[in-house]
């Protein structure tokens, strides 16, 4: 099953993808997680990406296209993949199309998680992350023990880009560069919209219902 989980920053892509990846046994590929791991490890890619990420800007397309191509060629993608945070621009989507043709793994569906702007700001400003990729919320999705990851026991932290001014910039960038992909995938008849303002479980059920069609 070959799926893109699409939506604005804070829509719940990461939260849902973690669970869906287990349920459907396909790898969760989050370009944000991959970039943050590189920033933490101080790789050349990480150093370059950090400049953009801290400002709420997109990392250049060529960097992301190379990264996603390498990742999709890994053997664990043989039975499918769940993309989270890629593509974010039309050139990235066009490049994805070429890569997927080359490896004969065309997309089945693009699930667009729809959430209002006010809700997004509340979600992002209360988000707490673990370096294992789990994300929590101080009110809506709090860990069992404050500041500690349920999954791995790691210390939770607030992302540098989850501050009010950077959040607003990310939402502007989303509207300008990423949102046009909704029409792009609608034209290709790959888009399914789901309401993302329900609880984590409600959204999970809605996405599962769609993914079940492609099992
Ligand atoms: P994305 O990966 O799309 O940026 P996340 O999955 O990290 O979004 O979710 C953003 C924040 O909102 C996190 O703090 C998460 O715990 C919280 N969250 C996710 N889904 C919901 C939901 N359905 N209702 C309320 N809060 C949610
Ligand atoms: P969000 O929770 O806002 O959806 P991500 O964790 O997916 O955030 O991405 C964090 C940051 O990493 C983005 O603001 C951007 O700087 C960079 N990034 C992630 N994926 C991409 C991509 N496909 N293209 C360009 N930049 C990306
Ligand atoms: Zn963790």
User: Which kinds of small molecule does this entry bind, naming each only once?
Assistant: adenosine-5'-diphosphate, zinc ion
| CATH topology title | Rossmann fold
Q: What structural class do you assign from the helix and strand content? A: alpha/beta
Number of domains: 1
Strand and helix order: EHEHHHEHEHEEHHEH
Radius of gyration: 16 Å
**Strands ordered across the widest β-sheet:** 2-3-1-4-7
Count of DSSP-assigned helices: 9
Would you give an account of this structure?
This protein has 215 residues and is of the alpha/beta class. The chain has a single domain (2-27, 74-214), classed as P-loop containing nucleotide triphosphate hydrolases (Rossmann fold), CATH 3.40.50. 48% of the residues lie in helices and 13% in strands. The protein contains 9 helices and 7 strands. It has a 5-stranded parallel β-sheet. A hairpin with a 5-residue loop joins strand 5 (127-129) and strand 6. Helix 2 (31-41) crosses helix 3, helix 4 packs parallel to helix 5 (90-102) and helix 6 packs across helix 7 (164-178). Bound molecules: adenosine-5'-diphosphate (2 copies) and zinc ion (ZN). One adenosine-5'-diphosphate binds next to helix 2 and helix 3.
């Amino acid at each position: 099953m070959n799926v893109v989980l699409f939506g604005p920053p804070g829509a719940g892509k990461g939260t849902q993808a973690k669970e869906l990846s287990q349920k459907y046994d396909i790898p969760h590929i989050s370009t944000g997680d991959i970039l943050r791991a590189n920033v933490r490890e101080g790789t050349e890619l990480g150093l370059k990406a950090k400049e953009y990420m801290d400002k709420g800007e997109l990392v250049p397309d060529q960097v992301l296209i190379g990264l996603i191509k390498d990742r999709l060629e890994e053997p664990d993608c043989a039975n499918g993949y769940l993309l989270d945070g890629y593509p974010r621009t039309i050139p990235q989507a066009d490049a994805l199309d070429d890569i997927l043709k080359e490896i004969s793994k065309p997309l089945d569906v693009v699930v667009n998680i729809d959430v209002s702007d006010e809700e997004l700001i509340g979600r992002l400003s209360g988000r707490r992350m673990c370096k294992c990729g789990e994300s929590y919320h101080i009110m809506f999705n709090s860990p069992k023990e404050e500041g500690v990851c349920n999954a791995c026991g790691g210390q939770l932290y607030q992302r540098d880009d989850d501050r009010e001014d950077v959040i607003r910039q990310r939402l502007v960038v989303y509207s300008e560069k990423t949102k046009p992909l909704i029409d792009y995938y609608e034209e290709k008849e790959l888009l399914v919209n789901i309401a993302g303002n329900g609880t984590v479980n409600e959204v999970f059920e809605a996405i599962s219902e769609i993914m079940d069609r492609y099992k």
